[in-house]
Predict the structure.
Amino acid sequence: MALTIKKLIFLSALLTFSLAFGQVKTVCPAGFSFIGEKCYFVSYEKANWFNADRKCHNLKSSLVIFDDDKDRQLLTATLKVLGLPFTNSWQDSIWTGLTSLGMDCNFVRSRNGKAVPYTPWSPNQPNPIARKDCVAYANYNGFGYHNIECEPYEFPFACEAKTLVTEKYLCLRKEEFLEVDINIL
């Protein structure tokens, strides 16, 4: 009998210790999906660059910008699977979060004006012709960025958002378990 009580006390202490630390996991905001290590929202709705940028901003996100070639290849493959038509034409593009508005072909992040270290331009791009201040991504002379007028062209777009860190705790309270999710922004 004493051994059983000791085992119960030990198991109870172990359970309490385990529950005190909880579980931490990374999740995407509602409507976004994990692709690689990022959260994306893909819109099949075509919009000009300004409207696409605004829609992403309203979702607390920004138009997609590739961090590296692995990121570019993974999102490209996913977009193809999702049915976005990447034919060998600039007309089958998606908008990106790069712009040179007011900066004479100096392309930066639209949300904060910071330089971008990875810019997979298609051959002969960026084209320095005036008013081509926005950047789209297409299979145009090989997959890559190309600069284009921000309007009147309309393309689908993808938004990327920061991941959310969620901590989950199971707390013991009067012989019942209480599950608590805490989102850390």
